[in-house]
Description:
This protein has 372 residues and is an alpha/beta fold. The protein contains eleven helices and 14 strands. The strands form three sheets. The protein has a ten-stranded mixed sheet, sandwiched between helices. The protein has a two-stranded antiparallel sheet with strand order 6-9. Strand 10, helix 6 (214-226) and strand 11 form a beta-alpha-beta unit. Helix 1 crosses helix 9 and helix 1 (13-31) packs parallel to helix 11 (357-370). The longest helix has 19 residues, at 13-31. Bound molecules: 3-isopropylmalic acid and magnesium ion (MG). Magnesium ion binds at residues 264, 268.
Amino acid sequence: MYRIASIGGDGIGPEIVTEGKKVLEAAGERFNFAIDWTDFDIGADRYLATGKLLTEDDLFELSKFRAIYFGAIGDERIKPGILEKGILLALRFHFDLYVNLRPIKLLSGVETPLAGKTPADIDFVVVRENTEDFYVGIGSRFRKHEKAELNVARELYNVKFGLDVESDAEEVAYQIGVVTREGSRRVQTYAFELAEKRKKKLTSVDKANVLSDVYGLWRDVFSETAKKYPDVKTEFTFVDAITMWFVKNPEWFDVVVTPNMFGDIITDLGAMIQGGLGLAPGGNINPKGTSMFEPIHGSAPKYKGMDVANPIATIWAGSLLLDHLGEHRAAAAVVSAIEQSIRDGVVTKDMGGAAGTAKAGSYIAECVRKGK
Length: 372
Ligand code: IPM
Ligand code: MG
């Protein structure tokens, strides 16, 4: 029996999580485990009604679970940034979910916009650092003069900046990116270990030619960590170049490790080459603590309640969740069932099918049960 927390969130979030749960329960029936879900009402509606984003109490309750199944957040009634920073990023930071695992895999039967590429060419994993970089959320806007104390408080370290800035520009905005030796080392180590289990090739992404302090450190740590994994072939790429190679030669990649900000950008590109945002899953992982699994797409508010959203990304994120729990056979069966539903054409409109969200989800659950 596994106890798992779920947060449907906003927009299409609740619908797609419902489908994901159906499929994970079917996997439990076939592989002899049960799941006990605890749903949390966190998101835009609660925020508008009560002003609460993520409370101490939510965090305490969520910390009792090994895994959180997360739909999406984002709502047009609320200014961009409030829910994202107050809920999603707050969860990533609070639980120190330092690995953002994003498989980029073209499933059989899915169309990619890359001419001539097949599932044999598109099968790699992006390991995105998930707690540092320009995501730490420290910065400001000011005119003339600003004195500020900026803090980053983490389990691993604390950083405090004291700033005293003078300017005669009309207005100034700045945002500080933070990269640490230990933060880089732990996520890169995770990526090396993953590469060892795969094709033993690891690509590191940075922009050390321009942002040479933050990504210079990232690069130095990568070179040092590489010495411990002599059987893994390594390479550096600049982030601008990797966007080109993802399109031109995706078959070159096995595992890609990247700082947070660039990881955000290149995984949307990755989602497109694997067939679209409706298919791309992600895991926010703390190998020793509570981890969180979600589709990488957002809440698509205009499709809320219309039974049109593609549930595959969320169901696939559920497969990553099962992997995290150690249910590897069940995790693989979920991906096979997704592939079966695609072969049978029981897919949503974005993939050229006629099924609604619920029908597509139920069909995948049925395939899992039947062992297809
Ligand atoms: C993602 C999203 C988030 C991010 C947003 C919603 C804060 O784009 O998970 O990729 O930037 O990390
Ligand atoms: Mg993103």
